[in-house]
């Protein structure tokens, strides 16, 4: 098996240490010769890098080289894979997005509603630049992007790089939900075979099979409704906010029992209830700053001080394992099945060809090969079409420098709808995002 040169772009991320643990766990399936960290924030990167150096010395001694840099050429030259996990504006801007929306009485969330729109307009510019930079030095590298909001980023990147089949957008939410299914069914998550359709953070499981072809869907639905639904991945199992989200997914299933929902649909199906649950002074961004970010930073600082990873609060998580297994399938042409984001092109027959949809695909050395979904029922088609129009308007507004399209986008979005609110939110977000957004007149 060819050993890979992997670059992690946005290596100062709170997800990096979990990813490193997952690389160690998966080293037989995705062997590496070199790992390179790239970030624009030297300090943020250095903490993770110094801790990773210690971790790899102890648990990945066969790795030929580990380094970190803020130099693009150094980072991307001869890369086989680039995992991209950047957050333009950081968690501080995420907090503003969430608070501005809540101030207007609508959902304040990282990827949904006005928060997702604000974040999307910040991400597009940096992501386009980053892909150009990677392609300058590594024209053949696989780029696995999970920078959010993945739906908007995927649409913008498809516009800018229409033929780049080695650029793939990917989200861990479906597999994180499947871990909970696996727990309920008492099977290994990798033995489950899902059927799924939708947009990123806006989709449904239609069937859950096992590898022998047995259909577990109806029993699973019944068990969720009767016995409850909880997050099971180590990263989120004990997080109160995620526990509430999974409980709400159970409610969605009771209300619409036809298919099993992605947890993110709660923001679109019960927007007022979601607003009521929020404390504007302690939104999710603040919880992450005080929770995951603090935990990762403290862990790294302790490792660096002690000079060892022994006893460190580090664990393999589904986020990392999923990205790595997907990468291995691309690298070694194993054609394994993963839910990823691709251009529709007839996969969902009653949605437009150019929609970026999230569906099961076989990952091969020729890219993601989507499996046919066919026609979807009217209710889901209606919901998706509204959301798709919102996403497209956001992307068009970026490329055309068109503020009116942002107002149209929020008017279509189920979390806003009211035109007066849409206009006021757009004005506030323009001020808050000065320097990050296009200069809308
Ligand atoms: N698709 C998914 O399912 C999924 C899952 C988890 C996380 N994410 C995404 O991963 C990203 C990281 O999340 P986080 O909470 O760890 O954020 P974070 O702020 O902790 O980390 C992001 C890092 O990116 C760096 N960065 C910002 N702009 C950059 C640029 N232009 N070039 C290089 N580096 C840059 C920052 O300096 C920072 O170190 C976010 O976009 C998040 O939404 C996506
Ligand atoms: O609110 P956050 O920052 O905790 O989470 C936002 C992200 O949520 C999803 O990712 C989950 C992931 O599904 C799970 O496996 C585990 O790794 O935790 C993550 C959340 O911490 C979602 O798919 C991402 O797109 C969001 O950024
Ligand atoms: Mn996601």
Could you explain how this protein is built, in words?
It comes from Halobacillus andaensis. The active site is at 172 (proton donor), 264 (proton acceptor). It is a single chain. The protein has 441 residues and is α/β, with parallel strands linked by helices. Among the domains are: 4-170 and 291-326, NAD(P)-binding Rossmann-like Domain (Rossmann fold, 3-Layer(aba) Sandwich), CATH 3.40.50.720; 378-432, no CATH class. It contains 16 helices and 12 strands. The chain has helices spanning 16-25, 42-59, 72-76, 90-103, 113-137, 150-160, 173-185, 217-227, 240-255, 266-269, 271-277, 284-306, 318-331, 378-400, 403-412, 419-432, and strands spanning 4-9, 32-38, 65-69, 81-84, 142-145, 167-169, 192-199, 202-210, 260-261, 336-343, 356-364, 367-370. The termini are far apart. The structure holds nicotinamide-adenine-dinucleotide, ligand LEZUNG72 and manganese (II) ion (MN). The ligand O=P(O)(O)OC[C@H]1O[C@H](O[C@H]2[C@H](O)[C@@H](O)[C@@H](O)O[C@@H]2CO)[C@H](O)[C@@H](O)[C@@H]1O binds at residues 110, 148, 171-173, 176, 233, 235-236, 284, 288, 317-319.
């Amino acid at each position: 098996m060819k050993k890979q040169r992997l670059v992690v772009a946005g290596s100062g991320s709170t997800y990096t240490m979990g990813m490193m643990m997952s690389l160690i766990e998966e080293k037989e399936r995705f062997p590496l010769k070199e790992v390179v960290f790239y970030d624009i924030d030297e300090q943020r990167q250095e903490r993770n890098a110094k801790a990773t150096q210690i971790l790899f010395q102890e648990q990945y001694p066969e790795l030929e080289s580990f380094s970190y840099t803020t130099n693009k050429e150094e980072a991307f030259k001869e890369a086989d894979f680039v995992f991209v996990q950047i957050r333009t504006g950081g968690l501080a801007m995420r907090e503003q997005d969430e608070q501005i929306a809540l101030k207007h009485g609508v959902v304040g969330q990282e990827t949904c509603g006005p928060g997702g729109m604000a974040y999307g307009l910040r991400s597009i510019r940096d992501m386009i630049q980053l892909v150009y930079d990677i392609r300058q030095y590594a024209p053949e590298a696989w780029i696995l992007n999970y920078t959010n909001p993945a739906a908007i980023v995927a649409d913008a990147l498809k516009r800018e790089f229409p033929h780049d089949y080695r650029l793939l957008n990917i989200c861990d939410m479906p597999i994180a939900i499947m871990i909970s299914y696996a727990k309920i069914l008492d099977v290994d998550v990798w033995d489950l075979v899902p059927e799924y359709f939708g947009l990123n953070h806006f989709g449904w499981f239609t069937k859950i099979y096992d590898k022998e072809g047995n259909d577990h869907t109806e029993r699973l639905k019944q068990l969720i409704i009767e016995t409850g639904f909880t997050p099971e991945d180590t990263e989120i199992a004990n997080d109160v906010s995620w526990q509430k989200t999974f409980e709400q997914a159970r409610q969605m299933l009771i209300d619409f029992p036809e298919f099993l929902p992605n947890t993110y649909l709660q923001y679109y199906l019960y927007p007022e209830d979601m607003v009521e649950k929020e404390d504007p002074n302690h939104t999710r961004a603040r919880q992450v700053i005080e929770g995951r970010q603090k935990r990762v930073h403290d862990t790294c600082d302790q490792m660096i001080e002690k000079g060892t990873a022994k006893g460190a609060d580090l664990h393999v998580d589904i986020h990392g394992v999923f990205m790595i297994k997907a990468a291995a399938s691309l690298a070694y042409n194993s054609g394994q099945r993963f839910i990823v984001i691709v251009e529709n092109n007839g996969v969902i027959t009653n949605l437009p060809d150019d929609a970026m949809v999230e569906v099961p695909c076989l990952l091969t050395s020729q890219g993601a090969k989507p499996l046919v979904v066919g026609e979807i029922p009217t209710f889901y088609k209606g919901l998706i079409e509204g959301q798709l129009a919102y996403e497209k308007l956001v992307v068009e507004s970026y490329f055309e420098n068109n503020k009116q399209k942002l107002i149209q986008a929020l008017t279509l979005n189920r979390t806003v709808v009211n035109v007066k609110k849409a206009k006021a939110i757009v004005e506030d977000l323009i001020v808050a995002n000065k320097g990050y957004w296009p200069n809308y007149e």
